[in-house]
Amino acid sequence: MIEGNTIHRVVFPCRRAFSGWINAKSGEHIAVRPTHWRIWPR
After folding, report:
1. What is the per-residue pLDDT for 40?
2. What pLDDT score does 32 carry?
3. Backbone angles phi, psi at 23, to 5 degrees
4. CB burial string 14-41: b at 16+ within 10 A, e below
5. Whole-number pLDDT of residue 25
6. For residues 36 and 8, what is the distance between their CA atoms, to the nearest angstrom?
7. Strand partners, 23
8. Which domain of life is it from (predicted)?
9. Are 22 and 30 in contact (CB under 8 A)?
10. Count of CB atoms situated within 10 Å of the CB of 3
11. What is the pLDDT of residue 27?
């Protein structure tokens, strides 16, 4: 993902919502621009 000017890996599952991207577990909005996707293991 790209956050600001930094590229790094997200260490928690996220999902796309109407308002943008959110942390799938907490529901908290996160300000990121993803570059790749993968299925998160359960």
Report:
1. 77
2. 79
3. -70, 120
4. beeeeeebbeeeeeeeeeeeeeeeeeee
5. 92
6. 11
7. 14
8. Bacteria
9. yes
10. 13
11. 94
- Enter the tokens of residue 27: 């529901």
**In angstroms, rounded to a whole number, what is the distance separating the alpha carbons of residues 37 and 14?**
10
Q: Using alpha carbons, select from 10, 16, 42, 11 the residue that is nearest to residue 29.
A: 16
Query: Where do the DSSP E strands lie in 1-42?
Result: 2-3, 6-7, 14-17, 20-23, 29-30
pLDDT, tens digit (0-9, with 9 covering 90-100), for 1-42: 777 788 878 888 889 999 899 999 999 998 877 777 778 777
Structure tokens of 17?
A: 């919502």
